[in-house]
Amino acid sequence: MGRKVQHSLLTKAKKNKNDEFYTQLSDIESELKHYKNHFKDKVVYCNCDDPRISNFFEYFASNFKELGLKKLIASCYREQKNDLFNTEKNENGFFFEYSGTEEEKKKPNSNDIIHFKGDGDFRSYESIELLKQSDIVVTNPPFSLFREFVAQLVKYDKKFLIIGNINAITYKEIFKLIKGNDAWLGINLGRGISGFIVPEHYELYGTETKIDSLGNKIISPNNCLWLTNLDNSKRHQDITLTKKYFGNENDYPKYDNYDGINVNKTKDIPLDYKGFMGVPITFLHKFNPEQFEIIKFRKGNNEKDLSINGKCPYFRILIKNKRIQTEFIELTEKQESQQVTKAIRNLGISDNQQVYASK
Ligand SMILES: C[S@@+](CC[C@H](N)C(=O)[O-])C[C@H]1O[C@@H](n2cnc3c(N)ncnc32)[C@H](O)[C@@H]1O
Fold this sequence. Notes:
Elements: H1 2-15, E1 22-23, H2 25-32, E2 43-46, H3 55-62, H4 64-67, E3 71-76, E4 94-98, E5 114-115, H5 125-132, E6 136-139, H6 146-155, E7 159-165, H7 172-179, E8 184-189, E9 196-198, E10 209-211, E11 217-219, E12 224-228, E13 260-262, E14 276-280, E15 292-297, E16 316-321, H8 326-346, H9 351-358
Parallel strand pairs: 2-3, 2-6, 6-7, 13-14
Antiparallel strand pairs: 1-9, 3-4, 4-5, 7-12, 8-12, 9-11, 10-11, 14-16, 15-16
S-adenosylmethionine binds at residues 19-23, 48-49, 54-56, 77, 121-122, 139-142, 145.
């Protein structure tokens, strides 16, 4: 019950543009520790972050020297609500820059921030001007604008490390980046991201929520990921394969509408199969582009969802093993030819006819 409510809360957050999930410092630290070598002499921009409260800002300001940063910028959006009931002047968006000198404050207050002329939307010209000066964008952007957010980073050719919903993998624009090796998953995913601070007015349900030692309300939706184009060690580690296709063919049914086999769990990817394999999307968390090639997402040859005997398993990513070892290639070829021979025998055709037929 609790879990369902939280998922629906997150879905609602997505739909209603109610994007107020704030990232915890501990989650930022446990991801960022894997990228320390990327930040030397770089300008980091947190473009969905109030520098007075953002833990992204806090992380980079506190680790400024250790990372060797050149500059840190954080900017904050302020929605402009003007309607019949709200005629008061809105506060504009604002930003703060930190260069790591002794005189500067690591924790700015309202007197230190600089107001934009506009709302500080990450798509506004003022925010884009700051983006152009930056090298790496690190933040948790609004869930509802994730596609646009990533498209802008790609357009301005920026490095990034951002939090999104696991579903983002299934967006065609995002999958295209992953397939093309222009983006990949970070280290932590799902439960690896412990939870988000939500505003006071959020109601907490069930066991996946808590109040932390500072009195913050924390919600743990368990369906978020880090998306990045900064290299990390994990994407160079092979998935250890132990299972075999030949001899266990029944465990790997073929798709009706694609020449490939279905694999239900990443750990069950067979080491001796050189053709196409459909794997669950969680495979991407272990994906090493030197080991596997991503071919396609979800659809078979007829552009309908991949199916087995008319039924569609969950979304699958079609992959191919790039590094099937030579010993296995020889073995698979021998086994395939044995299978063909067996099938032909079953049809009652003799070996001689078979040779004749193949000529
Ligand atoms: C998921 S919250 C994360 C906040 C902060 N980055 C963090 O991780 O703690 C997304 C933030 O984006 C802000 N936001 C919403 N729409 C925005 C926009 N168009 N441009 C920039 N920021 C926006 C929201 O006000 C909210 O603070």
